[in-house]
Amino acid sequence: MKIPERAGDERVFFERLKDPVVLTRRIGERDIRFIVEPTPPRYFYPCSVDDACRVLGAIATSVRDLEFVVFRHPSSKQRLLRPVWGRAVFWYEFRKQHGAAVIIESQRPGMVRWNRSQGPDGRAELDRLRADGHRVERTRRGYEVHQTPESMRNTVLFRTLLHEVGHHVDFDRSDVETWKGKNSRVKEDYAHRFAGMAVAYLSNEGHVPFPPLLDHESMRHEGLDPAWFVADPQVL
Hints:
Structural class: alpha/beta
Radius of gyration: 18 Å
Distance between the termini: 38 Å
Mean pLDDT: 93
Order of helices and strands: EEHEHEEEHEEHHHH
Low-confidence stretches: none
Strand order of the largest sheet: 1-2-3-5-4
Helix content: 25-40%
């Protein structure tokens, strides 16, 4: 199985969005476009645009080259083949405009199974998930990761977002040959270190953690549906 491409459409699958809402927010000394794709029932974005803006604003010097923050809903096949919390994209196209992007993908609360056989990277990620507040249980067949809206917000807002920014910082500080010479382990290690140091700094400065920023009236005024950012529509 592979993610299908569209004839005559040269965009990568994560550049193809359906009916997105586009906002512009001032982060530090630059404007960044926030692109939000609606989510179907049972799926949500674990953090809001305002949440992301508060975190990015606190590390504004590290995002001075960022053009887009994209909230996207992956298809079932994309979720099956390439499940991620987020992505760093160094050349993203949206409506004939290009630039660096961080992508946040919609999620669904519940339990996720991991294989029993995990190498050092997998075990380290399970430890990070535990630290984020996910309940991780070991069973005879493997691991069960129980995800709540709160633990997912911790993962996306206070780790994944910073991790993807770390990839951009690493890319920007490397020349072409140096970047090509780095393997995926080296790149991931840098992004993990960046996220860890960033959240420690933000915590020491009192920037994080903070409660969800969900101003329903303001969101609706901007064309956003608050239901896209909460796991249970009954809380609206």
